[in-house]
Amino acid sequence: IKCYTESCSCKAFYCVLNFLFSDQLQCIIISNIFLGANPSFLDADKLGRGQSGKVTHGGTLYLVNQDHPFTVKFSLSSNGTASSSAQRGLKATDKTKGGSNSEGKEEQPSPTPKRSIKDFFPTSPMKVTHLFEMKETEEDEEERLAEEKLKHLQELAEKSVTDESKRPGSSASSAKACLKSSWQQTGNLMLYTAAGVKGSDKIAGFDIDGCIITTKSGKVFPTAPDDWRILYPEIQPKLAGLLKKGYKVVFFTNQMGIAKGKLRPEVFKSKVEDILATLQLPVQVFVATGPGIYRKPVMGMWNHLCEKANDGVTVDKTQSVFVGDAAGRPENWAPGKKKKDFSCSDRLFALNIGLQFHTPEEYFLGWKSAPYNLPEFDPVSAVLYDPPSASLTSSKTEVIVAVGFPASGKSTFFHTHIVPQGYVYINRDTLGSWQNCVSACQRALKEGRSVAIDNTNPDQESRKRYVDVAKAAGVTCRCFHFSASMEQAKHNNRFCRISCT
After folding, report:
1. Which of the residues 182, 240, 288, 489 has the least number of beta carbons within 10 Å of its own beta carbon?
2. Where are stretches of biased composition, namely Basic and acidic residues (predicted)?
3. Given this model, what pLDDT does residue 486 score?
4. In percent, how much of the chain has pLDDT > 90?
């Protein structure tokens, strides 16, 4: 049923309701398939997209929020059986049904033939009978059929919502604005979505501390929950302009103090809400509360946004941007800016995602781009092995001995490139001692199998043990030297910690 009212045009309000009439129970089962931005209500119960509810005699259906009421009343038809009708509330008028005639007398509606499930679903095999002619088994059967049809409608509703969110052509025009501000928690991620936020293919992302706000006290870290102010007066109008252009404004912030117990989540939540109240703008806020995949520069917060928190709208990274103050700028990067940036995590966050990046001064104040330094180790440009023409594995039985400091990538390399080729993997952390490693190597060679020794083996003595075993077995022995720099080892160690959480 398409519902229109005198005060709402079809563009302002459009709702399709599927009614299942269960006469013997004297109720109407309503399944809400398609719904606009505003929910319906069954009495005091909210009826969201794809949800269903049951209305009994005297119950009220509110089409939009708690407006446009329809009261359900059951009366006896001319044949003495129960019939149902949905009538407008006392303040509503209906000039076509149940209204007053020209003489001022109430016009009686003509008797409506009683309908059952089969009238709405012609394919139903059930025979239609009047309530007073039904036997108890027939009543049970119709109740079961009603439940089946309701379940079918609910499945259609869920499929409709899923298809809409996954449709390749989904855009900001199909996204609905959030009706109510709310917080959500997913592991080490807190997510706040303010009322009015809607999905968009264009994302304008911002860090919070040092980008949107700074301390009132002038200190690096806030001295109290209210020790903050908006960094620049240009920020609010700039963000408002982005919203008018169809951007979705999103804040991404690391708050390790929450995981360390130095900052209570409730305190920071209140701070976020106060900031948005000051800006008076609908903003979505992602908060990484500890280490792991959500902490910048790792892309966890961005991935969560794209996959679960953008109303199914596909993000266009070429039209999106990220702004942050952790940009890797050195000392004296600008007049009056003596301190270097504490890190380059914001710039790396944008780099990992593939977004254009700006500092707050560049984006809000129009300053020229400042110099910056990235980490010495660049995982994108790293070479897997040298020389590139070398063969990683051999068709003949052999022993490969790894040499490298912890976190230099030995285990990952072996498990990715060597072990899948049939090599026996030997590791001291697993076997407990170098003696056990040597014994395992000897057994594997006797079986005609190649061996990969994954230990640090930093000195000649530790390496000689396996060279001697290989000589005794009459096989070759090769050394794989993992020449990772200290910066690369730190990178690998951080990545390992993230991937294990």
Report:
1. 182
2. 91-108
3. 81
4. 54
